[in-house]
Amino acid sequence: MSSAKIVRRSVPADTSTDELLTNLRDYLLPEPPAISLPPRMFTSPGIYEREREQIFGRSWILVGHVSQLAAPGDYLALDIAGEPVAVTRDEDGRLHGLSPVCRHRLMPLVRPGAGNVKDFTCSYHLWRYRLDGSLLAATHMRGNPDFESAECRLPAFAVRQWHGLIFVNLDAEAPPFDDDLAVVDAEMTNYQLDDMVQISGWTEQWHCNWKVAVENGYENYHALGFHPDTVKPLMTGGIDMQVHMDSPLVTRLLSPAGTPFATTVLPLTEAERRVMYSFRLFPCAAVATFGESVAWISLIPTAIDRTEVRGGTLMPAGALHGADVAAVRAQVEATTSVINGEDRRGLEEVQRTLGSRFLERGHLSPKEPGVLAFYRKLALALTESVGR
Ligand code: FES
Ligand SMILES: [Fe+2]
């Protein structure tokens, strides 16, 4: 069945949110049209609001590696689709996800970034909060009989660790994702993620809608244009990938490696040495293996046209024994910075076109089945509970 001719109509700039959601449902068909998203999906405030509510308000977002929260007092602070978020490690070693906004008069308790603190002290009137979100002290409040300091605390979010990767969910009651990742968990056993160390971690701000960045990560096709001298030479088995949609959240993307990866410490099988194994956790987390090194990346919206790109490179601790770690780190950071720069420049150019009145949906290549997998998951997340 081919419905491409029907759906490849141009979508005018005043397209309503409901019309866009109706378009999106086509990706749920058994044979979805091989066609790109309506351009308005990237700029519609109604769609962004819906994404904030139905996706980022209830999804597991990859925010960092456990080594970034190793010591009591360590914290990460970021913005997830307009929602300030802090992840802390308290004095007892427990992780917490918190809304770091003062309960007095709305002052943010911390700026986006990372650090180590004894507590969060509000800079406005000096209320203090413990790292588990409970109130430690509030100055000059005894005279207000309605104020119960024991009941005053920062709202909590859910936090989970998966083999050293830390995820946060704004819905404190969110179900865990372990079952979704069961196949990945089994297939990644030989990578021994728990014994890996993060050799480098980074955060960048890209001027594009989060889906512009995410859909790019579901295909190797763009290595031809964006990365001719960096990623393309690594694609020794070509740019095709096998796509497996395991659950509404998880997609595995397997790219052949024509030249097998060398191993020094991991017990990778011949088949594992011949594949770049990766998976995506909807909406915006990616983990990819390159033989013995593993990269994670998370593409988190901070506004409708801004994406925070967080990532890191992991290596087996054993592979670094006796190595010049500073030199390895410098090499990894140099490579990452070049490749990220190539993606960033290209995707910011795509973003720059989104105001044009002459945009149309485009036909996809057979090299892009992963993009359709992402659209399907997007459609599932955004159209549930919407009547047709
Ligand atoms: S707003 Fe934080 S103490 Fe007043
Ligand atoms: Fe890329």
Question: If you had to describe this structure to a student in words, what would you say it looks like?
Answer:
This protein is an alpha+beta fold and 388 residues long. It folds into two domains: 67-169, Rieske Iron-sulfur Protein (3-layer Sandwich); 182-353, Naphthalene 1,2-dioxygenase Alpha Subunit, Chain A, domain 1, CATH 3.90.380.10. Helices cover 23% and strands 27% of the residues. The chain has nine helices and 17 strands. The chain has helices at 4-7, 17-25, 45-56, 182-187, 210-216, 223-226, 270-273, 325-353, 369-383, and strands spanning 61-65, 74-80, 83-89, 95-98, 113-116, 120-121, 128-129, 135-137, 156-162, 165-169, 196-206, 242-245, 250-256, 275-281, 285-290, 293-303, 306-316. The strands form three sheets. Strands 1-10-9-4-3-2-5 form a seven-stranded antiparallel sheet, with no helix packed on it. Helix 2 (17-25) packs across helix 9 (369-383). The site of FE2/S2 (inorganic) cluster has 8 residues, from loops.
The whole-number mean of residue pLDDT values reads 94
- Strand % is 25-35%
Q: How does the overall form come out from the CA principal axes?
A: globular
Give the % helix.
10-25%
Question: What's the structural blueprint in terms of helices and strands?
Answer:
Elements: H1 4-7, H2 17-25, H3 45-56, E1 61-65, E2 74-80, E3 83-89, E4 95-98, E5 113-116, E6 120-121, E7 128-129, E8 135-137, E9 156-162, E10 165-169, H4 182-187, E11 196-206, H5 210-216, H6 223-226, E12 242-245, E13 250-256, H7 270-273, E14 275-281, E15 285-290, E16 293-303, E17 306-316, H8 325-353, H9 369-383
Antiparallel strand pairs: 1-10, 2-3, 2-5, 3-4, 4-9, 6-7, 7-8, 9-10, 11-17, 12-13, 13-14, 14-15, 15-16, 16-17
The protein binds FE2/S2 (inorganic) cluster and fe (ii) ion.
